[in-house]
Design a protein that fits this description.
Blueprint (H helix, E strand, L loop, with lengths): L3 E6 L10 H10 L2 E6 L4 H13 L4 E5 L11 H11 L4 E10 L7 H18 L3 E6 L2 H11 L6 E3 L6 H9 L3 E4 L10 H7 L7 E3 L13 H7 L9 H12 L3 H16 L2
Parallel strand pairs: 1-2, 2-3, 3-4, 4-5, 5-6, 6-7, 7-8
Helix pairs in contact: 2-3, 3-4, 4-5
């Protein structure tokens, strides 16, 4: 049994409405007794904070707008995120960044929302919770403009190459590893990258209900009752990551938890 913290769980997602308490109980039984609830838009950030307030010492929250929702980012959005970030339960600003893969918002809208949220993080003195997909160069360029004022952060749900990972490490960020590492189709770059990831810079997350590990057994999938990922599967992510890092899972669990507490002040 490991003492793990899931740094990225979308517990405000509709799929958890019917059994959220059971999800938390299953996570605790699996050794995942603490979680950070991701805020991905204005409403979701408010809901994440409410969940954290309802489960003190178990849940914390982030406050931000995902690049998919950047088209909705207005002056009042920035004001709301700034206000939410002042709460002690909010331990990071984000999920923020750039996603040029799906382009649900224009590049200009994404870059504006990203830049604004980096300003908020610097102003409130909290870490950043970062998202990047197919936008590494502009993402790094925008980060560099704010780097000296930031209080650290994590490249959440990292899926990139070894070179990209080390670019984030060089900027002082932690790396968040999800069940993407279990994907035999798309996970090769990540599997190669984590072999060079320092133990003192790794964080673990499920990104539940997304990114259900593809290498689960039929029995495990049946027990979950569908394709929804849960924080209770974080030990599965831990085991896979330890294999590719060629380290002891217990050692990795201790280090990842220590890293999480250090970054987010838990």
């Amino acid at each position: 049994m490991h003492d793990l913290i899931d740094i990225g769980a979308n517990l405000t997602h509709d799929s958890f409405e019917r059994d959220r308490d059971s999800v938390l109980a299953r996570a605790a039984e699996a050794g995942v007794k603490r979680m950070i609830v991701t805020g991905a838009d204005a409403t979701g950030s408010q809901q994440a904070l409410a969940l954290a307030k309802a489960h003190p010492g178990i849940l914390w929250a982030t406050s931000g707008v995902h690049p998919h929702h950047a088209s909705d980012y207005k002056t009042e959005t920035a004001a709301l995120l700034s206000e939410l970030a002042l709460n002690s339960e909010v331990v990071a600003v984000g999920e923020m960044g750039l996603d040029y893969n799906r382009n649900f918002s224009s590049h200009a809208e994404q870059e504006f929302a990203f830049d604004s949220q980096l300003d908020i993080a610097a102003r409130v003195g909290k870490p950043v919770f970062l998202h990047q997909r197919d936008a590494h160069s502009p993402f790094v360029a925008i980060l560099q403009n704010h780097l000296s004022q930031l209080k650290g952060g994590v490249a959440h749900c990292f899926t990139g190459s070894k070179e990209q990972m080390h670019a984030y490490l060089d900027m002082g960020f932690y790396i968040g590893i999800t069940g993407w590492i279990c994907d035999e189709r798309r996970g090769h770059d990540l599997q190669e990258a984590v072999a060079t990831l320092p133990l003192d810079r790794i964080l673990l997350e499920t990104d539940a209900p997304y990114l259900l590990p593809r290498d689960l057994s039929k029995e495990q999938r049946k027990a979950l009752g569908g394709r929804r990922n849960e924080p209770a599967l974080l030990p599965h992510v831990l085991a896979a990551t330890a294999r590719y890092m060629q380290c002891n899972p217990a050692e990795l669990a201790v280090q990842a938890t220590a890293n999480t507490r250090r970054l987010f002040g838990l």
